[in-house]
Amino acid sequence: MDFYVVFFLFLFAFAVNVQSYLIPREEPNSDGCARIYNEFITKKKTNFSYADVNDCYKSFPFDKDAIDTLSGLVGGFYVFLDKAKEPPQPGFDFRPVDLKAELENFRTKSYSTLYDFTTDVKHLFYDLKDSHTLFGSYCFTTFFFHTNMTFYSVVNNGEQKIKVFDDTIDQSNIDCEVTHIDGQQAFKVIYEFANNSVYASRDLGVRFNIALDRAYKFPSFAVRSEIPERSDITYTLKCDNKNAFDVKRNWNAFAQNSIILNEFNNSKSYFDNICNPTNGIIQIGPSSTAFQEIKAAPPDDFNKIVEQQDKSITTIKIIDSFVSFFKTQDFGIVKFFTESPTGPEEPINMLTDIIQGFKELENMGVKKV
User: For this UniProt entry, which residues form the secretion signal (predicted)?
Assistant: First the structure.
């Protein structure tokens, strides 16, 4: 069930992106996606400027039909809608979330780009603080942002401080204390980032540690997939009890997988091939993230067992050796055989079939999965 929830919400993001958008025709110099492609082809670069990625990501218009798609999928299949509305138990720190109501509230907002809408929805799901419930978009996971500096936290004499773990530009800054970030206390800035932008735990202390993590499996303060609010950031450092000084760094973007840079040459081809692909392979998560296959009974054996044990269970759809859909009364059953499908279908075609499987459950009156 946990894996289903993760996978379902990734499907969900895919469904939102399957729209027909009219991408404005732009001159190459004003097209951020085209500038990225030219840098990659002419200079073999896999690191790009904040401005180029910002312009690329924000070149796709928003379509309000996306809200209808999300509301329908959440209302039809997210089984923890009522649970999400409950206040946290003592010791945990998060807010109750009425997903359906808050998705409806997005209708009152004016979005000019798909990126802005997707980011707001992503943060809504972050507020669940559930590492098994994710919302993502293929469009906006191509690049990660960093400033060449990472951090750790220590406690000295009862006071928690932030220090520089590594600085690949100036290693003399390593182990210096970070007193302020953009003029605010460093601890407070990272604490707020952990509270608002890290989803992987309901324990704020755990989220704080994740925010300082140097990997990028989950959003961290130093390495993030979301476009930072500004193109630069200023750290105030204090080394060996000397006078404090400011270090200003630009947010630079790097491609999490350079192979994907061959898939587009402007914003239109980026949208067609990355955001709304008809075939080919799209990498769902960071290249450092891998799943191990779960060994299970062969699909045919499982299906026979289900049918023999209970004649009231109806088989709806079977997709290769990956997933099957069943129905009993108004309940749906989704059986995943592996986290790493190896069927003959292209992954994107398989994904389309899986979306159709969920739609067929809904059409047959299924209320819970």
Answer: 1-20
